[in-house]
Amino acid sequence: MTELLQKNIAAHISLSNPETEAFCNLFQHEIIKKRSFLLREGEVCKFEGFVIKGLFRVYHIDKDGFEQILYFAIENWWITDIDSFTNETPSQLFIEALEDSEVLLISKKDKEFAYSNMPEIEKLFRVMTQKTHVALQRRMIDNLSKTAESRYIEFSEKYPQLIQRLSNIQVAAYLGITNVFLSNIRKKIALKK
């Protein structure tokens, strides 16, 4: 059950087998059914999660009732509300399973235990946090400087396995456009081929 997590860890840092096993043992396995929530707005996020099976969306609902998707998480991706988790404040986000899913969850207490007893774990999360910041910065720049069509093309090229698992409405919400506008973009692209 933790093989994928072990590979993810090994891609970022070097741990001995006993250290890897000890760290992985801090995680709790959870099965989340399609359309169920791992986190709802207003709850305090008490976990960082690693997706071992399935698909999640992390989103916010704005004051006008529109869904704004921050990101999706599939197998081998991490998932959390880092603000709520770190600051122990009510979340502004929803984390919903879009498919029957399985995650490994670590609590703040167990993560702090790992930091204190396995110094390399702090490096693991620092490296992952840096990568997340880079991805969010690039996404913000893209949203400010690129057309919706170019953002859609880049998203579909970068995540072909993800785009096949999402509805048009979900892709449109991620891109910050309407479903109708996304349909027009897809038609325009199809005509160019």
TrEMBL record:
Pfam families on file: cNMP_binding (PF00027)
Source organism superkingdom: Bacteria
Domain Cyclic nucleotide-binding: 32-110
UniProt protein name: cAMP-binding domain of CRP or a regulatory subunit of cAMP-dependent protein kinases
